[in-house]
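Table S2 (continued). Query chain:
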Amino acid sequence: MRSTVFKQTLSNLPIGSRVQIEGYMGSFILHNNLAKPAVFLAGGIGIAPFLSMLTYATGEELRHSIVLFYANRCLEDAAFLDNLRKLERINPRFRFVPTFTRTPSDNDSWKGKTGHISSEMLFTEVATTQGPIYYIAGPPTMVAAMRRTLGEVGVDEDDIRTEEFAAY
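Corresponding output:
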């Protein structure tokens, strides 16, 4: 866990303290056009809004085709893996693509993707890079890198939605 101001403030609160949490803000929500697939690009805790969208889409049996790329440093850092795998099993329109940037060389248990989300990974997992609506959530540097990658593969800026998770 990073030692951010937010986390320091929470950890210094006495047990039993009352806090007020406000609802969501902004417009980082799943689009309505079912003809356009959704591609989610999550880094670290940026998975939070996508888990919510996927849970809703699965529960409501929405017809969106969704691919989720989820990048983390290592397996231990990845939140909600079991939930995401369960959603993939029960939602035939959802595909989950986790990737890790720091897998130990002596760990044979991980057989999935490794490295950062790249244009090659997108080309492998998404039928066509033009057409889907892309959603990016994660640390600011990851969001910026994904925007550059999407631009390099010809994704229209109007088809990109972002949310940055800074200092969480």
